[in-house]
Write a structure and sequence with these properties.
The chain is α+β, with helices and mostly antiparallel strands. The protein folds into three domains: about 450 residues, Thiolase/Chalcone synthase (Peroxisomal Thiolase, Chain A, domain 1, 3-Layer(aba) Sandwich); about 80 residues, Alpha-Beta Plaits (2-Layer Sandwich), CATH 3.30.70.3290; about 120 residues, Malonyl-Coenzyme A Acyl Carrier Protein, domain 2 (3-Layer(aba) Sandwich). The protein is built from 29 helices and 26 strands. An eleven-stranded mixed β-sheet has the order 6-5-7-9-1-10-17-16-11-12-14, with helices on both faces. Strands 24-25-23-26 form a four-stranded antiparallel β-sheet, covered by helices on one side. A three-stranded antiparallel β-sheet has the order 18-19-20. α24 packs parallel to α25. The longest helix has 21 residues.
């Protein structure tokens, strides 16, 4: 579902040396994330599986469907009408609340803008960055098709000056696709809308790479969208044009007669390779180079392709990549499946690529055989296919290829056409991607795999990133339930639960109003599915977050258990490092050690306050360090009983080394007092105080209107509990061997040395408070 952004990285010098070794004489750019929505492919994994399986993701529309969307019967009955097209499911769905739009404003926007905005959000998450909080100067480079959205207002020039007219213009014109994403996601780099017809989205990626190399961006999102309405439209075939007479695209085949128009969108997240390695970003593949040119008038007409133009742009990209053409194992061609286009493209490639041995021929592909021509999104579709191919070491088949076009003379070329998925086992895999626009703007890009040597340099922080809970948030209840369903599905696919939790914490917005938390265990997927179906789930905690501040509460005695902290110690670096400091701070005061008392399942030391109290404080301080490392920060801290010592450390008033010895001394002295006990009673203070006075017990704590704690000698407390049972009042004996916050502690109020006097830091610190603290309730 998601990639991870790790928290540490190797040195800059070692990275420079490795990049120079594997990618000499070029300026590589890393692809660190992506998002896409193509026909029958709502996400990247489905897209890839459809490619490998050789699926043609088109639909034949029924007469009823075509009439329902408003097509005239005369058009449908025309013998040249082709009832085929592609449909993006849920293209009309948009989480307006998430992006701060009213329903009316969202409905006035072309779905191309809405879907691309969502895609940028998902791509940033996929790269490991929380949308709206990206720490780098990030550019947006995007393209879109002409708006055919029926919801847009028909405007004349005078209405553009009015609020409603201007809003409609900005919501539907191609000029605003990039800047809208930059505005809504708070991205501060260049925001450029790119229009070069069919090559637009690959040119957008080229410009993003150049922006990174020039230093004007530190990260970039680039891509494109193409979506026409109604989606169930089909087209009328006309001989000599680029559209196929039967709705199939057959690149390089003897029966190739054209393509068909598709719908889709995609984008990639990019960083300079060195920066990505330093940050520990997830690197999917590497863009070595790209080139852009124009045919000029070196062709038969404005809309025709040019051998000279295509040859020149491919040669330039190879030169900038500093690789030999014989190293390239795959080319994602423009591949429109038109007789003229195929012939010119193959001729240009043959002019660049030298002959090869039969077993080292370069494979050709075209995503248009799967989903038609995506116009402004065609380039990004081809790039994403190539990025996944070099990353995963597989080459998908070219569909509808049965008999090679004899005019292309492929058998005499260095190229081959795969008709089934092929393994690509070279350690260093290089591929080219072509996208050529009507009007003559050509783009070619060289993509490479990340070698094992560099991949190994991505830091392995498994021990520091494992989580015990999955935290999610969304802008609405329905969106949160869909997110829960998605995570349940990912967990059932054997996705690493800790990786998912880490990504959710670091790469997703957790401050959205509808929130969920669920512990990670074998039942997590079922618990999420149950909750998502609007049934109660015992493990799932959900609610509506308020825009208030964080309060951290540190509890007191009775909250400890044997082996407390052992699991967190193994899974959280911040927790382990802080707990080690606590162990060290009290090492001379406890035998056996606090570590032994906490982690040994056979130890009974935690039944003794001399170990229980420092264990509680140490655990709480370490948990606070863990949550800080995960990005949380308290505005207030409250302590209960011995937990007040932990709160004081977390607030910065005292250090671990100051507090832990004091807590050890406190626990030991309290243990030395006359035998006592404590009980939590689930009733109000007014009801209980007459009974407490009768048995001469002390009120230790009033935790709530129905939660009161009493302390006193064991014998009196036993009779008190028996009386409570007679009155059907619920209670629970606390797992302590002393009577905290009671008169039994009076003898030791002067026995604790003034270790904290003169050491407090910051406003609100009161050292004398802790000396009276043992009696105060």
């Amino acid at each position: 579902m998601d990639n991870l952004r790790f928290s540490s990285a190797p040195t800059a010098d070692s990275i420079d040396a490795s990049i120079a070794q594997h990618y000499p004489d070029c300026e590589p750019v890393a692809v660190i994330g992506y998002a896409c929505h193509f026909p029958e492919s709502p996400d990247g994994e489905t897209f890839w599986q459809n490619l490998l399986e050789g699926r043609e993701c088109s639909r034949r529309f029924t007469r009823e469907e075509l009439l329902a969307v408003g097509l005239d019967a005369a058009i449908i009955d025309d013998p040249h009408y082709v009832n085929i097209g592609t449909v993006l499911d849920n293209a009309d769905c948009f989480d307006a609340t998430l992006f701060g739009y009213s329903r009316q404003e969202a409905e006035s926007m072309d779905p191309q803008q809405r879907l691309f905005l969502q895609a940028v959000w998902h791509a940033l998450e996929h790269a490991g960055y929380a949308p709206g909080a990206v720490p780098h100067k990030t550019g947006v480079f995007a393209s879109s098709r002409m708006s055919t959205y029926p919801g847009r207002e028909a405007l004349n020039v005078t209405e553009v000056a009015q609020v409603k007219g201007l809003q409609s213009l900005m919501g539907n014109d191609k000029d605003y696709i990039a800047t809208r994403a930059a505005y809504k996601l708070n991205l501060h780099g260049p925001a450029l809308s790119v229009q070069t017809a069919c090559s637009s989205s690959l040119v957008a990626v080229h410009l993003a790479c150049e922006s990174l190399r020039a230093g004007e961006s530190d990260m970039a999102v680039a891509g494109g969208v193409a979506l026409s309405f109604p989606q169930q439209a089909g087209y009328r075939y006309q001989p000599g044009m680029i559209f196929s007479p039967d709705g199939h695209c057959r690149p390089f085949d003897a029966s190739a007669e054209g393509t068909w128009a598709g719908n889709g969108l995609g984008c990639v997240v990019l960083r300079r390779l060195k920066d990505a390695l330093l940050s520990g970003d997830p690197i999917i593949s590497v863009i070595l180079s790209s080139a852009v040119n124009n045919d000029g008038n070196r062709k038969v007409g404005y809309t025709a392709p040019s051998v000279a133009g295509q040859q020149a742009v491919i040669e330039e990209a190879l030169m900038l990549a500093a690789i030999d053409d014989r190293q390239v194992g795959y080319i994602e061609t423009h591949g429109t499946g038109t007789p003229l286009g195929d012939a010119i493209e193959i001729e240009a490639l043959r002019n660049v690529y030298a002959p090869r041995p039969q077993d080292r021929r370069c494979a050709l592909g075209s995503v248009k055989s799967n989903m038609g021509h995506l116009d402004t999104a065609a380039g990004i579709a081809g790039l994403l296919k190539t990025v996944l191919a070099v990353s995963r070491g597989q080459i998908p088949p070219l569909l509808n290829f049965h008999t090679p076009n004899p005019a292309l003379k492929l058998e005499e070329s260095p190229f081959t056409v795969p008709v089934s998925a092929q393994a690509w086992q070279d350690e260093m895999r290089y591929a080219g991607v072509s996208s050529f626009g009507i009007g003559g703007t050509n783009c070619h890009m060289i993509v490479a795999s990340l070698p094992d040597a560099l991949n190994a340099r991505l830091p392995n922080t498994d021990g520091g990133r494992k989580s015990t809970a999955l935290l999610l948030s969304a802008a609405s209840d329905s969106a949160l339930r869909r997110l829960a369903t998605d995570y349940a599905g990912a967990l059932r696919k054997n996705a690493d639960a800790s990786d998912l939790a880490f990504t959710a914490l670091h790469a997703r917005r957790l401050d959205l109003p509808f929130r969920l938390a669920v512990p990670l265990n074998r039942e997590t997927a079922d618990a999420l599915s149950t909750w998502a179906s609007e049934k109660s789930g015992a493990q799932v905690y959900s609610g509506h977050g308020a825009s208030g501040k964080q309060v951290w509460l540190f509890t007191g005695q009775g909250s400890h258990w044997r082996t407390m902290g052992q699991t967190m110690y193994q899974h959280s670096t911040a927790f382990a490092d802080t707990l080690d400091r606590c162990f060290s701070a009290c090492s001379e005061m406890l035998t056996p050690s606090l570590r032994e008392a906490m982690f040994n399942p056979d130890s009974a030391q935690l039944d003794n306050m001399a170990w229980a109290q420092p264990a509680i404080v140490a655990f709480e301080i370490a948990m606070a360090a863990h949550w800080r490392a995960e990005g949380l920060k308290p505005d207030f801290a409250i302590g209960h009983s011995v937990g007040e010592f932990a709160a004081a450390v977390v607030c910065g008033h005292y250090t671990i080394e100051q507090v832990m010895p004091l807590v050890c001394r406190r626990g030991a002295l309290m243990q030395q007092c006359a035998s006592g006990a404590m009980v939590a009673v689930f009733a109000d203070e007014d009801t209980l105080m007459p009974l407490a006075r009768q048995f001469e017990l002390d009120l230790a704590a009033n935790n709530g209107t129905q939660h009161t704690v009493f302390s006193g000698p064991e014998a009196r407390l036993a009779v008190f509990c028996a009386t409570l049972s007679q009155h059907d009042i619920n209670y629970r004996r606390l797992s302590v061997t002393g009577a905290a916050h009671s008169a039994l502690l009076e003898p030791i109020t002067r026995s604790v040395p003034g270790r904290l006097r003169g050491t407090a830091r910051g406003a609100g610190a009161n050292t004398d408070y802790f000396h009276a603290h043992r009696r105060r309730h």
